[in-house]
Amino acid sequence: MRFKKRTTAIVSGSRRRRTGLSRSLVALFAIGAVAVFFYMFVNSGLFTLKKVLIYGNRHLGYVEVIELMKIKGGENLLTLDLEEIYENLHSSAWVRSVSMRKELPDTLVVRIEESKPVALLQSADGLFVVDSEGLLLERVSEAPVYFLPVIVHGGADGSPEFMEAVKLASVISDISEAREVELVEIAGLEGGTKNIAVSLDGVDLKVGEGSYREKLVRYFELSREIGKRKINVDYIDLRFANRVVVKPLEEAIQ
Are strands 245-248 and 184-187 parallel, antiparallel or unpaired? Predict the structure, then answer.
């Protein structure tokens, strides 16, 4: 009797192993079927990229953005590498920030924030557009189509003098009276930040370092009085906190 019971136990265990193996095979088959179905579904053409919607670009044209993204066409939207596209877009100095999202089944939405040009750099290497962080955006011809202050300097060297000139240019671009001036030049950088000067249509202002908005507001208030008195100005010194020095062509008036 003991022998029969033992035989029965062995047979029962063998059946359990066969049942477990069958279940494993069924599970593997099911997983394989799902994987095949998923692969066929993903690659069915339903998710082929057909539309790229681009927002926020002003300087860069649509075609330029597409070229930067290095999209060839026919890509699968589900497997599209957004990180790679992000890096490709940032290869342009004009691209400040990027956000992207996939809209199934076939659309990619791209939002770009472009760098803001605040000045032109006139250097020995040519004329360049400069952004608010002192980065060179692109080289331009001698006749740019938009108004920007011109920084006369050796190059975008990141020096304190150059960065102060960029800050001054940013302030000038935000003052309405300054935007009416046809030619703005920022110079004097070789003498240090205390000697930074700006020329507004030929009127030379010594502005030094810092408090640029306050100094320029004082100048535009003063310029109306100078116009009324018809004073031919050699230069105006705005570097002092409590006074403005006007140097006419003939003599100094303080």
Answer: unpaired
The pLDDT tens digits of the residues spanning 41-59 come to: 556 568 899 999 999 999 9
Rounded to whole angstroms, the Cα distance separating 216 from 218 reads 5
At 169, the amino acid letter reads A
Nearest to 194 by CA among 222, 221, 220, 160: 160
Half-sphere exposure for 183 (CA within 13 Å, toward CB): 8
**Residue 156 to residue 223: CA distance in whole angstroms:** 32
For 63-111, how does the pLDDT look when each residue is reduced to its tens digit (9 = 90+)? 999 999 998 878 899 999 999 999 999 999 999 999 999 999 999 999 9
* 64-102 per-residue burial string, b: 16 or more CB within 10 A, e: under 16: ebeebbebeeeeebeeeeeeebbebbeebbbbbebebee
* Beta strand 150-152 pairing with 184-187: parallel
**Going by C-beta distance under 8 Å and a sequence separation of 6 or more, which residues neighbour residue 127?**
120, 121, 139, 140, 141, 142, 144
Q: Please state whether the predicted TM-score (pTM) of the whole model is above 0.85.
A: no
Angle, alpha carbons 202-204-205 (nearest 5°): 140
